[in-house]
Amino acid sequence: MNVILRCFTILANAESCNFSEGKPYHLTEGQTVADLVDKAGIAIKNVKVAFVNSKIVDFNTVLTDGDRVGLTPAVGGM
């Protein structure tokens, strides 16, 4: 299955997770947001909020084909 990963602020980088277009990732059925974060090479401790299809989710959320995932670090008063 394929998902799109977009990262915000300091989590964004051109190789693993950009902001503008997002980066496609291929995952196997049953993989979670935490699995995607690991595959992208992002330290999970640096992620404050994860979104799937514009809804806040936890890292154990199982992803499905076509999901759009966003990651944001703690900023401001978060």
Describe it.
The chain has one helix spanning about 35-40, and strands at about 1-5, 25, 50, 55, 70. It has about 80 residues and is mainly β. It has one domain: Beta-grasp domain (Ubiquitin-like (UB roll), Roll), CATH 3.10.20.30. The protein starts with a strand and ends in a 6-residue tail after the last strand. The relative contact order is 0.31.
- Looking at this structure, what is the CATH superfamily? Beta-grasp domain
User: Could you give the order of strands across the largest sheet?
Assistant: 2-1-5-3-4
Number of extended strands:
5
> Which radius of gyration do the C-alpha atoms yield?
11 Å
Secondary-structure class? mainly beta
Helix content: under 10%
Mean pLDDT comes to 90
Task: State the end-to-end CA separation.
Answer: 32 Å
* Overall CATH class: Alpha Beta
What composes the largest sheet? Answer: 5 strands, mixed
Count of DSSP helices? 1
| Low-pLDDT residue intervals, each spanning 5 or more residues | none
CATH topology: Ubiquitin-like (UB roll)
SSE order, one letter for each helix or strand: EEHEEE
Number of folding domains? Answer: 1
CATH architecture heading = Roll
* Approximate shape: globular
- Strand content is 25-35%
